[in-house]
Amino acid sequence: MNMPQTQLTVITQVTDNRQGFAHCYFRPHNCGRPGEEAGGLSDGSALGRRWVGARGLRTSPLGQPPPQDDPSPPPARRTPHPGASAETAFQLAGPPGAVPRVGKLNSATNLARSPRGGAPALILPSGARWEGGGSLPAPRGSTNGSACSWAPRYAPRVLKTRRAQAGPFSALAKVARSTPRARSARLTASARMDSETATQAPTQRYFTWDEVAQRSGHAAERWLVIDRKVYNISEFCRRHPGGSRVISHYAGQDATDPFVAFHIDKGLVRKYMNSLLIGELSPEQPSFEPTKNKELIDEFRELRATVERMGLMKANHVFFLLYLLHILLLDVAAWLTLWVFGTSLVPFLLCAVLLSTVQAQAGWLQHDFGHLSVFSTSTWNHLLHHFVIGHLKGAPASWWNHMHFQHHAKPNCFGKDPDINMHPLFFALGKILSVELGKKKKKYMPYNHQHKYFFLIGPPALVPLYFQWYIFYFVIQRKKWDLAWMITFYARLFLTYGPFLGLKGVLGLFFLVRFLESHWFVWVTQMNHIPMRIDHDRNMDWVSIQLHATCNVHKSAFNDWFSGHLNFQIEHHLFPTMPRHNYHKVAPLVQSLCAKHGIEYQSKPLLAAFADIIYSLKESGQLWLDAYLHQ
After folding, report:
1. Which of 46, 78, 144, 432 could make an SS bond with 21 (beta carbons 3.0 to 4.6 A apart)?
2. Last residue of a domain, one of 274, 291, 308
3. Please, how many CA atoms are within 13 Å of residue 87, restricted to the half-sphere of its CB?
4. In Å, how far from its chain's centre is CA 528?
């Protein structure tokens, strides 16, 4: 009984320099219904053909069919051939119209004599072995002349499997002639779905920037690019540890530099990103959008590499330990003030000032832990972050992460930076946005007087009248367990001060502390951003967007302590995970980079920075009025 033949088409021919033998890409040529060719690559790309028949694997010239009745075709041998090595692949055709099964190799496919001296061997991936001197028999009842199309599906039923022996080629498999009595094949396929084993398609998906830009934060489907690789974050953004909004702000854009800036264990994060990978940019596409400065990006990445080699991303734990101890000592001193001097007005006010200092300084310290800039692992940073912000301040870490990382990702970008959400309900911020607001004839407040009412609804009210109730709404509405940490703060407050002041006295002290802390917090945090450019997201490069939105305050011992080293706001935004005590060391390098590319690096005295908040509010209010009346 004549067994049917399965033809393999050579897709391309490559060589292995180390062995000096020719290798090929193959696909089954006649594995569909009788008279039909299997799906896959076109014959136009074939260099030649080899087929498996009753006596092994044989060869026919390009464009000619194989001989049908050759009783004893000679086995194929390795063919010496000079050239360059390349990656190879093999395909097993499925039913008509189905996508062929494809295997991918990291080394070239070998055509070699079986180690037992039998038929030649076709080497397959990851230790799989396909053996058989004859063609694969079709299943019972099948009208197909070859088992090639059904073998992958029914392999457990009709094919025996075995692993290749360990050795230099333990990750490969061979097609060898079996005994005439068996006339069957053996096939082992790896179930691992990774880049080194069987995949659905051998080709990599490529995209253009226009395709990526269409999947922005305003679309249901969201993509972003990191190191030229395209990731689909449509579903993952809800599970993103940093919050759904911060990652969505870079949907449709290149996010390479923000990714590097925010993560301290990039290798670990990249492992979780593999499931989101859908392709990469086409080779002709640039690595980032045309709105970004390529030279500036390249030089900043070199600067970051230099900073890391200098060890400036490593924290001095003694510095942060002493900083925490000074906060705890101030907290104890506030309680001792009432215990020693009583609860009269002067000790009460002194206690409130000391507690306000504790709250402000704890705010700067939790900021360090929140940015993962103290410890080399996220676990310890998160633990201490919960302790400082939750137990020492009574606020949720999840709320801070949700708000603050958005600010760092897109500072002063309207609709993406929550720190400027008071526009346009309370203030008209920035020259561009204020003019837009005036042209639209919108007036929620008398913005031309905003530099005056800022003293009423800005520093005095932000923390006690807004943040204080919103943090509880946030954790309860989102069911965050940070509420437990917050409760410990309020319990400690009433247990330590209740015996001295009673319920009303403790509430009075608490809101007085929040009132003083609010002034401290607003002036320090807004002096670096409100006077700077405020606009819509223009998709600028990482350096440009940070430099346009931030400015520095001159270094001094008091300024560093008073602002928690946030007087180095530029350096902090460029390197958010850098320990604060290293900001002044990297500042000259950043200044040099800005000078080279013509970017303004602003640094000013502390009081001048405070005054610029008022001046900028007055200017933007006047721009709004002119546009409102005359445009």
Report:
1. 78
2. 291
3. 10
4. 27
